[in-house]
Amino acid sequence: MARRVVLLAAGAVAFSPSAPLAQPRLRLSATATDVETDKEESCVSFTVPVPASLTKAAYKTAAGEMAQTRKIPGWRQKDWKKVPIGVVAGAVGAQTLKSLAIEKLTETEVHSAITGLGVEVVGQAQLVGDVEEIMQTFTPGEPWDMRVKIDIWPEAVWSQPWDDGTLAVEVEREAKDQSTRDKALEALRERYCDIEDAPADHVAREGDVAMVDIDGYLRDENGNRAGELPIQGAVGGDDLELILEPGKFLPGVVEALIGKKAGEKVTVPVDFPESRQYREEQPLAGVKAGFDVTINAVRLRSLPELNDAFAGKIRPGLTLDELKQEVENTVGGQEEDKTTDTVHKELEKALAERLTSQLPEALVVESAKQRFAVMLAEMRNSGTDDAALKQMISPEGFQKYLKVVRPKVVTELRGKLAVESIGRSIGVQADEQQVEEQMELVKRQYEQQEADSGAAFNEEKAREKVTYELQRVAVLDKVRDQAKITYVDALSPEETARKMGIDVDNLPPEVQLG
């Protein structure tokens, strides 16, 4: 296969001098001629006529750069401006000099011509033809026609219309989770529980409330105070209210208070683990600390019965049945939202299958790279050590990832292409008020992230994502109205296990499904 010359704007960096050279005066605007658009291949080809004055100027500039950066026999490098072009060509090779001159022209001419085409390009342009042929057609000081090909954002080419009445998907309905409803009611009982002072001789037990003073510090090998903890502000304080439930506070502190009485003091050594929580939320991972805890009082908590009186504590006049219905509306609404998300995803897949558009490889690779970066960030946040991550961050590592993720990337890109096409054809756009409301939520989230990590907020990018997602939902809602959706009930954990061939009736007692 004939080799191609890839037009990289940064391709001349290897030849660039430490100080920039004066560039030839190029035209303000290059014009593309003989434009050919291939929708199936998602590319555009065109010719850029380059006048003789520019081919000569580019060749001269290339010779100057070579003279400044290469050793030219018989000449001192500081005299590079005086070296004749023929001498430079003889030293580095005429083909090398031509190649750099062509790169000089493509940096401005191709970019200018593409701008005039008014298309959304993807990746980098290529000169059409093999290297030897291109070099033969280029002569400094003579006009030259650059034939260029570049990928563009594809257009949707449908194998069959999306709205012909045959679009159908099967969707697993989100299972009704009674435990979620029970947890919601239990959380309300916890929030509106009754609290009273315990008798003076009461021994603290799990579920009680302890009013405590806590003093935290660094601990040496002998358990003595060795300085302040390495965080902003104290870990602890006076008159803190602790619900005595193991695992809900600093490691070991709650456990040490259970079995104690008001007025007692305890010292709790804490060796913070090397975990994500203590590495990111507070810089305490691996720290050896000590906490002096004084129990000022113990209070008793009693959870209310689920009845109308309890519901009335939440809102006057509210009955238990009405409260349960409100919980059902909230939890059931979340389950319905999840089902709708699944419907949208299945519709996108079905729409993607109806497209015949060729996706540019550059588009697929760039999308995969973004996924790859997100995956690595999530792995780091999950505690994967840097050594393991470094083994993955390599061209070979990415190629392995690309091979696995390519089918999913292609389907998602085709789905996006289909949604955008339908949106344009039926005139569906994102609701501006919804965009503004979502932007306010996004800004609040970013403000919190900025406080934690110093990340800057890119409003333009955020608005673009919010607008697209709202438009996507609006378009897919319209598609759903014309598609056949078959809902099936989700399988239980036991049914799923049986479908996978697992003998659920003879599982060990310690194995829990779900």
TrEMBL record:
Gene3D superfamilies: 3.10.50.40, Trigger factor ribosome-binding domain, Trigger factor, C-terminal domain. Residues 319-479 form the Trigger factor C-terminal domain. It catalyses: [protein]-peptidylproline (omega=180) = [protein]-peptidylproline (omega=0). Residues 37-186 form the Trigger factor ribosome-binding bacterial domain. Residues 204-282 form the PPIase FKBP-type domain. GO terms for biological process: 'de novo' cotranslational protein folding; protein transport; protein unfolding. Keywords: Chaperone, Isomerase, Rotamase. One of its GO terms (molecular function) is ribosome binding. It holds the Pfam family Trigger_N. InterPro entries: PPIase_dom_sf, PPIase_FKBP_dom, Trig_fac, Trigger_fac_C, Trigger_fac_C_sf, Trigger_fac_ribosome-bd_bac, Trigger_fac_ribosome-bd_sf, Trigger_fact/SurA_dom_sf. It comes from the Eukaryota. Its EC number is 5.2.1.8. PANTHER family: TRIGGER FACTOR CHAPERONE AND PEPTIDYL-PROLYL CIS/TRANS ISOMERASE, TRIGGER FACTOR-LIKE PROTEIN TIG, CHLOROPLASTIC. Belongs to the FKBP-type PPIase family. Tig subfamily. This is peptidylprolyl isomerase.
